[in-house]
Amino acid sequence: MIRQLSNVSVISTLVTATWLVSGASACAADSPQPGECFTRNPVSSEIHLPDMVNPTTKQGIKWTASLGSQSYSTPVIAGGRIFVGTNNDSPRDPRHTGDRGIFLCLDENSGKLLWQLVVPKIGGDPYLDWPRVGITSPAIVEAERVYLLNNRAEVLCLDVNGMANGNDGPFTDEASHQTPKGAELIPVGPTDADILWVTDLRSEAGIWPHDAAYGSPLLDGDFLYINSNNGVDNTHKVIRRPDAPSLVVLDKKTGRLVAKDNEHIGPSIFHNTYSVPSLGTANGRRMVCFGGGDGVLYAFEPLTEMPPPGSVANLKRIWRYDPDPGAPKNEVHNYSGNREVSPSTIVAPPVFVGDRIYLTAGGDVWWGKYQAWLKCVDAGQAGDTTATATLWSYPLKQSITPAAVDGTLTFVADSGNKTINCVETATGKELWSHHLTGEIWSSPMVADGKLYVGTRRGNFYIFAASRDKKLLCEATLDAPISAPMAAANGVIYVATDETLYALAIP
Q1: Is 36 helix (H, G, I), strand (E, B) or coil?
Q2: pLDDT tens-digit readout, 157-180
Q3: Facing residues of 232 across strands?
Q4: H/E/C letters for each residue in 299-314?
Q5: Which residues contact 200 (CB under 8 A, 6 or more apart)?
């Protein structure tokens, strides 16, 4: 189905989420990380992108590549390669069958498979590694290295070339890593990934993962920041690892755990630690911002020196901000399943734009209250800023990562009721809203003066990214759209659950 619309009056992450200001010039061409330069703003400086797509006539479609049956990972593009996660419901190698996490490296020009990382499930309790979800996390690429969180809550450093240039160390036991426990060893082949190092957050940071591990590494110098994924157990009422950190820092060269937060968030985690860290500068001060599973937003001083071998530093907090100070703070799991009264949680990343942070927070989508907010937060303060940092607030039901550009902020006001809204960044005043067909699980994407958004019914929309609503195109793709999009080198990449679409002007 395809509809092109003109002269329509007036005219968003999963979480994902994932992903405007600092370092923007380094993000033009390739898109080696989700969210522009760690501000986590899903805005790209790419130009010459399509405003019309027709799956029937193939208009606007450069190529497609098969994924699995569930795909939540933002595509990342660097050095002529595309990196994206999925599951193994469409096996590419007869040696690897059954439920696996899959991370693909594809050729940017054709979508052809170059290599893949295959990760067996944890096994046992399904809540540790949810069946058939696969690898949900987006990667980050720096030079010849790829950093990724897999479905087993392991942080990996991979060679961008895979096994094409040999098995580089120090890690050389890829065969054991890709073989399920108790199965016959699967030897490494030419299309397998080359792991350089691996850090298991379960053993190294003492975390207890829940449902599906999700994280988007933040790279700052030699340091790799990532949310720990510590969460509840299968009862949804117990934190098995209350002393585990929520934000960890690794040495990017070796994977060694070098720092962690010291906020003792664990006992107050309502569901999981899904929000990924962002990096920005406010009032002349650089800071790493992080949404805890306790529903509180934290800002930390970035590390400047590598801690001595064998030591783990504590991150120094700059400020904390509670977007829902009236919510229950003690015995939080007594409210599990309560849709009227519950703690708040933060799932989407905090989006940094100038001295402001745009934050979505509220009741957990599965286990909490039907109440949430989009908050505009002054990031230039210090201490406990709960009472002073709110610049404006917009009521939501449920939401995901907003996209800020040219004085406007576009976001999903209610993912279940399929509404996308646009407001002024300065005041929060609503400019327009639009009802879409299907639930919205991924953040909107802004690039080249256009707003791209997809739904769980496979509907793909292109709006003008403006203060007035203008719907340019509506098309139906082959499967639900759950993953945030990416733009690079004149192409916008849209991952449905089953297919990666490379969309471009002919």
Answers
A1: helix
A2: 999 999 999 999 899 999 999 999
A3: 239
A4: EECCCCCCCCCCCCEE
A5: 152, 153, 154
**pLDDT tens digits, 96-150:** 999 999 999 999 999 999 999 999 999 999 999 999 999 999 999 999 999 999 9
| Cross-strand pairs, 313 | 259
215 close to 18: Cβ distance less than 8 angstroms: no
pLDDT computed for residue 37 by the predictor: 63
Domain count for the chain, please give it.
1
Per the listing, tokens 């696996």 go with: 100
Q: Sign of dihedral through CA atoms 191, 196, 198, 199? A: negative
Where b means 16+ CB within 10 Å and e means fewer, 337-363 reads eeeeebbbbbbbbbbbbbbbbbbbbbb
Cα distance between residue 259 and residue 261, in whole Å: 7
* Residue 179, domain CATH: 2.130.10.10
Q: What is the mean pLDDT of residues 471-498?
A: 96
Q: H or E stretch including 202? A: helix 201-204
CB 61 within 8 A of CB 75: no
DSSP reduced 3-state for 164:
helix
Q: Is residue 140 within 8 Å of 35, Cβ to Cβ?
A: no
Helix (H) or strand (E) holding 119: strand 113-120
Q: Tell me: the pLDDT tens digits for 433-470?
A: 999 988 898 889 999 999 999 999 999 999 999 999 99
With beta carbons less than 8 A apart as the criterion, state whether 372 and 414 touch.
Answer: no
Helix (H) or strand (E) holding 359: strand 356-362
Query: pLDDT, tens digit, for every residue of 350-373?
Result: 999 999 999 999 999 899 999 999
pLDDT of residue 127: 97
Element containing residue 260 per DSSP (H, E) = strand 257-260
489-502 burial code (b ≥16 CB/10 A, e <16)? eebbbbbbbbbbbb
Contacting residues for 58 by C-beta, under 8 A, at least 6 apart: none
Q: Cα–Cα distance between 461 and 476 in angstroms, integer?
A: 9
Q: Give residue 16's pLDDT.
A: 37
* Residue 176 φ/ψ, nearest 5 degrees: -65, -35
What is the C-alpha end-to-end distance of the chain, expressed in Å?
Answer: 20
**The domain containing residue 257 runs over which residues?**
2-503
Give the model's confidence band at 202: pLDDT under 50 very low, under 70 low, under 90 confident, else very high.
very high
3-state secondary structure of 204: helix
Distance between CA atoms of 352 and 71, rounded to whole angstroms? 26
- CA–CA separation, 157 and 187 (whole Å): 20
Nearest to 20, CA basis, from 359, 303, 433, 356: 356
